Amino acid sequence: MNKFLKAISERILVLDGAMGTMLQERGLSPGGCPEEMNLNAPEVVGSVHRAYAEAGADILVANTFGGSRTKLAHYGLESRLHEINVRGVEIARSAATNGQFVAGTIGPTGRFLEPVGDAAFDEMVDIFGQQVKAFVAAGADLITLETFLDIAEIRAAAIACRQFSDLPFIAQLTFEDGGRTVLGTPPEAAAVTLDALQADVIGSNCGLGIDGIYEVLERMRKVTNRPLIAQANAGLPVLVNGETVFPASPKEMTLFHDRLLASGVRVIGGCCGTTPAHIRAIAQALARQDMHWEPPARRGYLSSRSSVVAIGSNAPCAIIGERINPTGKKAYSAELLAGKTAYIRREAQLQVEAGAVLLDINCGAPGVDEPAALQSAVFAVNGVTNVPLVLDSSDPVALEQGLKAADGKVLINSVSGEEKSLATILPLAVKYGAAVIGLTLDNSGIPERAEGRIAIARRIMERAEAIGLPKQDLIIDCLTLTVSAEQKRAVETLRTLRGVRDELGLATVLGVSNISFGLPNRPVLSSAFFTMALEAGLCAAIINPKEERMIDAYRSAMVLLNHDQRAEEYIASYGGAASAPVTTVASTAGIRERLSAAIIEGDAEGVLSLVETALAQGLSSLQVSNEGLLPGLEEVGRRFGMNRIFLPQVMRSAETMQIAFARLKKELGANALVPLAKILMATVEGDIHDIGKNIVCTLLENHGFEVYDLGKNVPAQKILDEALRLQVDAVGLSALMTTTLKQMEVTIALLHDAGIKVLTMVGGAVVTQDYADEIKADLYAEDALEAVQKIKELFAVKTA
After folding, report:
1. In this structure, what DSSP letter does residue 624 have?
2. What pLDDT score does 486 carry?
3. Alpha carbon 512 to its chain's center
4. pLDDT tens digit string along 756-794?
5. Cα→Cα distances 195→15, 103, 293, 490, 710, Å
6. CB atoms < 10 A from the CB of 713, how many?
7. Which of 210, 488, 655, 716 is deepest in the core (most CB within 10 A)?
8. CA pair distance 555, 572, nearest whole angstrom
9. What is the Cα–Cα distance from 78 to 75, expressed in whole angstroms?
10. What are phi and psi of 271, to 5 degrees?
11. Rounded distance, CA 382 to CA 356, Å?
């Protein structure tokens, strides 16, 4: 066993504390590159490592957090990437005089992956792979992925760790007070996704104090049996005499040790605000603890960016919507050939509303570029629903493209018992952290008897486990054959369900409706077979959830099989008035409502034709904007505030709004809409983080403001000069780092001293309302949508 993995199986390891603030205390200038100190001040970096080693740290984390080419490019250092990362590991190793493990660490790039941003998945894997290869060359013992906000980005980083090294790796995301990442991922979905990617340790760092981190890890523990890591801040930051202070004492960082250990935390360290004193207290407290821990049994789950679905064991049968399939659907096939996704988005929404918890996506029509189509379909479905996906293709190239586009742990449909299929599909599932459906057929076809099908299932299971795919991630399709042609086979399918469950301990799935093909009144027969299959242990069913008789049978069976406790779901579905048929907004609404729906759904593909239709019907550009588009954007904000949608959906809606506005501007020409106000935006000097600021800029433009974006690391004097030159109405400042907060105060003071009468607004991960009040900012916002709402209110008052 790897030495690090052996160590965490035997005891709790202590990981070191904050690096950036320690370097600043030792001379790193505001706005300087911490990783450059590996080259020009190695003795300073080494002194931090030695301080943590002397305090009792078992893991020393190299000074490589911002060592990707994307981050180093901000300082013109991308050509020295390998040298910087290698030296970082070497310096840490020189301080590891008592057998400490040395970890190379990777942080986020600050870019979003497609379709939210412009970064391609392969590009991100390559970016992270450069650091991983440097860590291997330098002799690191393990890799840590820290402070990630986007589950898609950390997926790319995790795949790079496995693709370019054999080193163990730790994977951590940062969560907010509400229990989700900035991009809407809850701990459960993060844990399921990272577990499937074979992260050796998973958990959370930064963002929260030890109490908040414990709550996150408790939620992760419910869905994974992996060892966990807790790397909390020293409390939540507060202002003391104008300085940001993390208030938790070393002793306070140890108060949750008993609960953390009981939850299976095997690594404990510190993040922002922690010092060698905090690490010493953690190490000393652990010395008195019983470190024994037995991992819980593994269970099967699938995940999207923002939800989790259990499969198998005692979980209710999962309904897989089957309608996104071109077989017998000429309109859908035509859309695939044209590169459109309207049918996909519509059917995805309708099926989820009807009860599907998973969605099967098949784009295999003649003449279609299936890899490109499957990628677009995944993006489209992720944009309008939150459910995990089933990627349905016999083309390995298309499957891989869809797997790269996915945000979570998907289900591949499917692998068979044929050698070519086993050798091609199972490695894809392992590499991309997916589960897989196993078909009980091989080169000889479908066995007539249950025993033959179970034998194929056993062979698939053994091959899967041999390459590292857990049996909980294999779901066996016992195969439904139509009784109109092979009536005796239905009983064999039911026998196979029971045998796979009882003999192999595997989850099962069926394409239920195949049973009635070629017979009249198919739902009658299909629903009866569905009920029989559920009693036989069926774990997932591929059906049309809009078929009422099938859903009626399902809901009834869930009560009778004791899956629907207290018949709550049944009562919710049937206890009131008869439900109306599910319809989309576009099918019944007028053009204004359809415009709003396009913004809400992020329909960048279809909004332009809707704008043209509205103009052709005689609506003015102002009416299109104010009566159609803006109400949709307001609804996006409302849903975001209710946690019904998350930042990726918000950004897609913003992109859709920009497409519509671009068309309206052409219509207006010289009579373009007068902006509500002119706003200057900047990330303050010393801070190179601008994701949040960029989102605010985009949303402000969509709401009718004229925005001038100065970018990141902007000196106060430049902000003043540009505010004067552009005659702006407001200045917005962003900061992510505690060490750059002071520049907000400096900038606002400079604006006030110069007598410029502008409104000032501040925001960022480390900014608080108290700090905004102290530095005399006019407005503080916690997130981008709140910023837009407050700015609109502020200017409404100003212009009243």
Report:
1. I
2. 85
3. 32
4. 888 888 887 778 888 888 889 999 988 878 888 888 887
5. 21, 20, 18, 37, 40
6. 20
7. 210
8. 11
9. 8
10. -125, -135
11. 14
Q: Residue 591's Cα: distance from chain center in Å?
A: 34
Backbone φ, ψ for residue 210 (5° rounding) = -65, -30
For 308-352, write each residue's pLDDT tens digit. Answer: 999 998 899 999 999 999 999 999 999 999 999 999 999 999 999
- In DSSP notation, 488-556 reads THHHHHHHHHHHIIIII--EEEEEGGGGGTTSSSHHHHHHHHHHHHHHTT--EEEE-TT-HHHHHHHHH
Do the beta carbons of residue 720 and residue 760 sit within 8 Å? no
Within 10 A of 288 (CB to CB), how many other CB atoms are there?
7
Torsion sign (Cα): 755, 756, 759, 762: negative
**What does DSSP assign to residue 167?**
-
Residue 384: closest CA among 359, 363, 403 = 359
Element containing residue 329 per DSSP (H, E): none
HEC string of 400-443 equals HHHHHHCCCCCEEEEECCCHHHHHHHHHHHHHHCCEEEEECCEC
Q: What's the CA gap between 268 and 255, in Å, rounded?
A: 12
The two structure tokens encoding residue 726: 């552009």
Render 648-669 in DSSP notation, one character per residue: HHHHHHHHHHHHHHHHHHHHHG
pTM of the model: 0.89
- Residues 6 or more apart whose CB falls under 8 angstroms from that of 275 comprise 17, 18, 22, 234, 250
From 352, 360, 341, select the one nearest 412 (Cα to Cα): 360
